[in-house]
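Anyone else keep sequences and structure tokens together like this?

Example one:
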Amino acid sequence: MAEDDIDEDAPIFAIAAAAELAAMHAQTLRQYDRLGLVVPGRTQGGSRRYSLRHIRQLREVARMSAEGISLPAIARILELENEVAGLRREVRDLEQRLRDEMQQRPGARVFAAGATGAVVTLRHGARVRRATEVVLYRRPSDPPASPQSTAEEALQQRIGD
């Protein structure tokens, strides 16, 4: 079994083993649990079970506490670290889904802008007829052009503004 195969979130360590691995007293782990700093999983009977991630967090709490960081500040740091870890997992999953989609349908999605500016899906290999007409932008405050005016007259009016 490779190190990558180990589930670091699996709640496998009882409180005594976790305390020993984190070089702390079991009562400290109970206190951190009550404060919400490091909250372990629970068995059906209510016993605490710690994961490798919990052990790492306990060591980090001890290090930050030794540096003089307050417990509320440590709690916020751990909360943000957990959020970042979750977002990284989500990004990794989305990247994998995108790779899978691209492998299943290579070149299947081609898009172009339609005459109204809407996105239009095209068949792979299809070519788009290029529009050659001039499109003028008018601000809502501009008076509408008469139906007889040409694109050149409208352009002259815009240049004169």
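And example two:
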Amino acid sequence: MKLKNLNLTALVAAVLVIASLAIPARAADPIKIGFSMAQTGPLAGSGKSALLAMKIWTEDVNAKGGLLGRPVQLVYYDDQSSPTAVPSIYTKLLEVDKVDLINSGYATAIIAAAIPIAMRQNMVLMGLFGLAANSRFKYDKYFGIAPIGENPASANTKPMFELAMTMNPKPKTVAVVAPDTDFGQSVIDGVRENAKAYGLQIVFDRGFPPTTTDFTTVIRQVQAINPDVVVLGTQPGQSVAVVRAVNEVGLKAMLVGGSMTGLQTTDVETLLGPQLNGFVNFNYWLPAPKLQYPGATEFLKTYQARAAGEGVDPIGYYIAPWAYADLQILGQAVEATKSLDGAKLGDYIRNTTHKTVIGDVKFGTDGEWVKPRVFIAQFQHVTGNDLEQFKGIDRLVIVGPDEIKSGNLIYPFQDARK
């Protein structure tokens, strides 16, 4: 009997030893964050820049001990800039890679393809630069990283309309051109709302097939109507083609631009060079004095030191700080709640003002920012295709709103092109 008790005691002790050894092993397992990110296709320029920023955040967090005492690991796949690739990628992330958290890729269509997956899994989804991506879904655990406020359809073009009303004489007519996509419809809806608010008549209001590559016919149609303001809602490849078409046709108007994604990236800026002169466009961050939030300068120094070697946007003003802040918010939520649970993370993110490298962030309706922070900048006096001229705010001049402007608008459009 004593021998049996001794054997039982030894067995229990052995089990306890094994269990104690297993605990730190489990604690050291990484927290996996899974997402798609464009590394090829028309969104790749911004996608690659965003990915480097996310890697830097991961390194920074791991250098401080990770999250919940565990290292962080990014698990990602190239969505090839195509929303049709998104469902299979997230299925693999969740069922094969067994990620703990998910994030979105870049741009509205990519995010919109990921939201239903997050909804089925009851997981938080941080959306990187979506324009009203959650307006149809109304998912309560979606949070958008873009400073476009609770009325995102109008936010990106509202600064352009505010700027237009400072011109003399005041404009009377507006044309809008955008693709037949969710993004394009959001732009058109926003222009309709802003035109009504500022008393402008819309004289050209139509979409184009998203596969369009030659815009000379469209721009000639716009020119024939002779509007005062031309709002262009385009995505990266389209933006390049439209700028070239405007240069070929010689479009005349008081103000041209507005909601053209891609023109904020260095590869496009250096590709188009002086063809950009005169265009006004939305921006979210430039190195203006009042936009120097804690940690932003240090992050960009790290990013720019590595960018050239990794073949990504060497300046990184457009998306890199936002991609870093995207994971900052997610990481802060994990630490604050001591949890990976979607409901707990969602409640925390929704009810907290977050401190990030792109300033304070507070979310409201549909996971959009409570307070928008979109501004408008104009390309001025660009010469050649030199990279250095696009650093700072000398060639990309902030022309509105007044509280952060760095220079005055040159108009009409054709005068700004000289």
